[in-house]
Amino acid sequence: MLIERRLLRFITLTNWILFSVVTISGFVLASGPFAWGILAGGLIVTINFHLMYRSLKRTLTSPHECNTSAVLGKYYLRFVASAVIIFVLIADDWVNPLGLIIGLSVVVTSIFIATFNEIRRIIFKEAV
Questions:
Q1: Nearest in space to 59 (alpha carbons), one of 46, 76, 72
Q2: Which residue range(s) make up the domain with 34?
Q3: Predicted pLDDT of residue 71
Q4: How many domains does the chain have?
Q5: Distance separating alpha carbons of residues 51 and 37, to the nearest angstrom
Q6: Chain-wide mean pLDDT for the chain?
Q7: 69, 49, 67: which is closest to 59 by C-alpha?
Q8: Can you give the three-state secondary structure of 40-71, one letter per residue?
Q9: What percent of the chain clears pLDDT 90, i.e. is strictly above it?
């Protein structure tokens, strides 16, 4: 259980750091709609990640019930809400689609960084 908590803490921290760095860089180096796309995409994916974590934690730690249909229902509800928000943002030209894609990749990038960090930790642990 220790490794899961460490990974989750690392992913969450890396997610917020990466989100902040990419968003600030977008506002400093790029146009307005591109930077707003990064911000909107990062917020959408970060909020979804945290809501999914809370939903899974509540379901999996409850000793009496493990209602997978409720978890799936909430997942699909978040998915549809995210799709509608993304559609509105792109259709009304509020954000640049490339900036939105960059923002939406923040959590995935954090997970990749955590994976490479764990691989590095395992390799150097075996080398010692």
A1: 72
A2: 2-127
A3: 83
A4: 1
A5: 21
A6: 90
A7: 67
A8: HHHHHHHHHHHHHHHHHHHHHHCCCCCCHHHH
A9: 66
Q: State the pTM of this model.
A: 0.85
Say how many C-beta atoms besides its own lie within 10 A of residue 100's C-beta. 24
Work out the burial of residue 107: count CB atoms within 10 Å of its CB; fewer than 13 is exposed, 13-18 middle, 19 or more buried. Answer: buried
Rg for the chain, CA atoms, rounded? 17
Query: Could you report the per-residue pLDDT of 61-81, keeping only the tens digit for each?
Result: 776 667 778 888 889 999 999
30 φ/ψ angles, rounded to the nearest 5 degrees: -120, 175
Q: How would you classify residue 80: left for phi > 0, otherwise alpha for psi between -120 and 50, otherwise beta? A: alpha
Nearest to 40 by CA among 109, 5, 88: 88
pLDDT of residue 127: 63
Distance CA 53, CA 15 (A): 14
How far apart, in whole angstroms, are the C-alpha atoms of residue 117 and residue 35?
29
| Digit-coded pLDDT (tens) for 99-126 | 999 999 999 999 999 999 989 988 887 6
Whole-number Å distance between alpha carbons of 45 and 106: 7
Cα dihedral 61, 63, 69, 75, rounded to 10, equals: -10
